[in-house]
Amino acid sequence: MGLKNKNMKRSKHPVRNSLIIIAVFLVFGGALFFSSANESLEKLKVLCKQPNASKTECMTRMRAGGHYKSKAGELKEAEEFYLIAAHMGDEIAMFHLGWLYHTEAIKNMVRTGRPIDKKVIAQANQWYTKSAKLNFSPAMNNLGVLLMTSDGRGSPQYMAGIDWVISAGRANNPIGVWNAQKYIKLASRNTDDEKNGVWNPRTTYNPKIILSPTLERTFYNLLPVSRPIAEEIRKAAETKTPMKAPNKPSEVPGLAFYNPEIKEKIRRDQQDR
Hints:
Strand order of the largest sheet: 1-4
Number of strands: 4
Distance between the termini: 29 Å
Number of helices: 12
Helix content: 55-70%
Radius of gyration: 19 Å
Largest sheet: 2 strands, antiparallel
Strand content: under 5%
Order of helices and strands: HHHHHHHHHHEEEHEH
């Protein structure tokens, strides 16, 4: 099931629409790695079929194309770029593909008030899982969040989600560390950093996880990381300074969408339509 480009019409409900934007649109930042990020898909397909084509370069350029198109809101085109890179074995493109499906499902649910599309969520699950099994910690984290929000507390799926989030934390993903803090029992075998939810950039981690837009697409609790928090993480990484969770999850900018009072306003807003 593919993604469609949608142009949202002006609405008499600006509060609801602004919350939709907060809930599902990522915060982009930083420069793309290739100045040729706007290369056409067909051109890249031809180049990548050449006998001397570098698989790594092809994956990277396809992924950059996906970033460019998704930033422009051209989700169908972004999906095509990411799919090619993902099928070539690019775990980063797999993660971003999962993110596309995941956020599209959330956006449609919020906009329509209908139950979340299980087919689209299944696609997000599929690509997050492929990426997570290749040890890409942002995918571990987001897969955990997806599973925990797809089923009831205490269910096998919910518990599997907790395991993935903790795995992301133990891979020293900063968001994984903070998300996992609430689930890791305060047992003697756990480090003080795990107990206190401290991300230590002095410990080994994959530097690709804090690049843009990957970091901004990693879910802190229930929403993508905000730009200010992403910049704090990058600064901590640069200075090798341990970093505690910047806020309680419920206080993170953007999580107001999950505030019961605001959810009630949205419900009333939808009834008035």
